[in-house]
Design brief:
Blueprint: H1 12-20, H2 43-55, E1 59-64, E2 69-77, H3 80-85, E3 92-101, H4 107-125, H5 136-146, E4 156-159, E5 219-220, E6 226-227, H6 232-248
Antiparallel strand pairs: 1-2, 2-3, 3-4, 5-6
């Protein structure tokens, strides 16, 4: 996007009124006044406007009275993973979705709109590089290539080509707002409560004869209460396990 752009869609009326129609007398003025030169039409203003629209989740409803269709467009920002791993240096991309027919109530006009829309479909899907099988999958691929909407469930991503990460993601100052700084939002510290790993061997003294019979799994009472290693209940359970082991040994 060069600094010598003529005018975008939003500034065309101001541009032609101030720059091209200097000799046209304005309504209510006897003498034409010099043209105003305070029109802001540079890369930075448009980049900031695009950033603000992306940040506030702005959506625009586009209606084509010639084709009798409508759709919505919005802006999405590239994530860090998309830029780093897939080499997509575009800062933004436009999403087109929510396709629907908005034909006129006039029968003659609605018929003309339908004819024009079918003509656009034929022009798109009958290209030379299009697959001759003409399946729905091939139609969707072709529609994505030509940025053409024809189904309500369809959506298309279109990259905004005049804003790139030309200096990398870590460049401190591009001269305008960039979305990558808001990609990772600071979050509050989250306290995660953890449980110490279970150790079946008690920390204090215990008889050495219990060393070989200590179960590796946690011990519980008949009521389902946890038995802490080294507690009185734990020694009682170890005593019972020791008696059971002695009873199971063969008598000489």
């Amino acid at each position: 996007m060069s600094q010598c752009r003529r005018a975008c869609v939003m500034h065309q009326s101001i541009f032609f009124r101030n720059e091209n129609l200097n000799n046209v007398r304005k309504h209510g003025c006897q003498n034409p006044s010099p043209s105003e030169t305070n029109m802001v039409n540079d890369k930075y203003s448009h980049a900031n406007l695009l950033h603000d629209r992306w940040n506030c989740r702005w959506k625009k409803n586009v209606i084509s009275h010639r084709l009798g269709i409508s759709y919505k467009e919005s802006y999405l920002a590239r994530t860090k993973g998309s830029v780093i791993h897939h080499a997509n240096k575009h800062m933004y991309r436009k999403r087109l979705d929510t396709f629907s027919f908005q034909q006129s109530k006039n029968v003659k006009t609605a018929k003309a709109q339908e004819i024009r829309f079918r003509r656009a479909c034929r022009r798109t899907f009958h290209a030379k590089e299009h697959n001759s099988l003409d399946t729905m999958r091939h139609r969707l691929i072709t529609a994505q290539r030509y940025r053409f909407l024809f189904l309500p469930s369809q959506y298309i991503y279109k990259p905004i080509k005049h804003l790139h990460y030309t200096h990398g993601l870590d460049y401190p100052d591009y001269g305008f707002k960039i979305p990558i700084n808001q990609d990772i939002t600071p979050q509050k510290d989250i306290v995660v409560h953890t449980v110490e790993q279970y150790n079946p061997v008690p920390a204090g003294f215990f008889p050495s004869k219990y060393k070989d019979i200590i179960p590796k799994e946690p011990l519980y009472t008949s009521a389902g209460d946890f038995i802490i290693p080294g507690s009185r209940q734990w020694f009682t359970r170890m005593y019972q396990l020791d008696l059971a082991r002695k009873a199971a040994q063969p008598q000489n």
